[in-house]
Amino acid sequence: MDSSAHINPLASKTNSNDITLEKNSQNNITHRNANMDALRGFAIIGILFMNIFFMNDSFYGYATHYPQIQSDLILEVFSNFFFEGRFITLLSILFGAGLYIQYSRYEANNLPSYPLLKRRLKWLAAFGLIHGVFIWGGDILLSYAFSGFLVLNYHTCSIEQIKKRANQFMFVALLIITAVSLLIGEEYYYRGSELHLQQLASWSAPYTDVLLLQLAQVGYMMLIIPLTLMWFLGGLMMWGMVLYRQGIFEHGLNRLTLMKCGLATLLLSSVDSLLSFSSNPIYVEFSTIMMMLSAIPMALIYIHLIIKVCQNSKLILAPFQAVGKLAFSCYILQSIMGISLFRYIAPELNTSLDRVEYIGIAVVMSVIQLALAPLYLRYFKQGPLELLWRKLVSSK
Q: What is the pTM of this model?
């Protein structure tokens, strides 16, 4: 099987255009890219619409009705095309591009790039551990830190070398995920099931008990990340480096690539939806692989659309740009808001809300962040966690 058939929509030989675009990207390294800020804000807001379902039970997530109600079915299909996996993929691509930008800035200022980047990633891992254990077990920061260490080995490679290695990492990760998923026994987790009621009781327990659950979940993730997620997310981050070096974050995709991404998204998302509603548990497990694959071309489409709308202007999509500049702080704030609501303020919501209501709450939380982020930046240059992270990295 050729993995590049699905996960390499931009594959092409390095040519003079690639070299020119990379030079342009290097020349713009000192200027903040408004497109990337808007994309990062869009991704942070978007990921909330998936995380919201896991804000109480951060392991199983939303408990569906049995049989499913129509509104849930419609939203699940819609999510399969436009939400599921799309924003974590987009954030991974942006994270990789950001690592390359930071590396280039350190090099331009004659600073020790690798030691500083490793220190940044070590502190990110520490933040991830704190977030995962003490706030919300669905943390992604720890996975990003692990993957970032992998990506640091390829900053100086050619574009073609990075593409090849990234696709190899992602393909092997998908094979391992497929093998592991087939070994997992079927669990009946639906609203009112014994497992659902057990989970509700466990996650609604006193904070000290929940702390132990989250500690166990983070420990489990630390075992899983080096086997699967580190390689898949690392591959996406390496593609982010490629996209940045090719100038994609300045100009977007060409028409042919955009059409290929659209067709790939339609095909893979359709297969994902068909498999996810199958009565065969093996097919349902395979739908996860289709979701991970379909998320890549859809994320590329989002990149293109946001770039064409924003046009690197600081005024267009300004609220999203503000969230993007405060991405770290906004991500943690989302967890605090969601956990506070679903576990402590109104835990009864977890037995009554359907997907539509969860989405409604995510909309309200998003509006709050889109309003607060620009207001905050009127008075401060950096978010509180961004500032703390920077000071910890710079301190000896």
A: 0.91
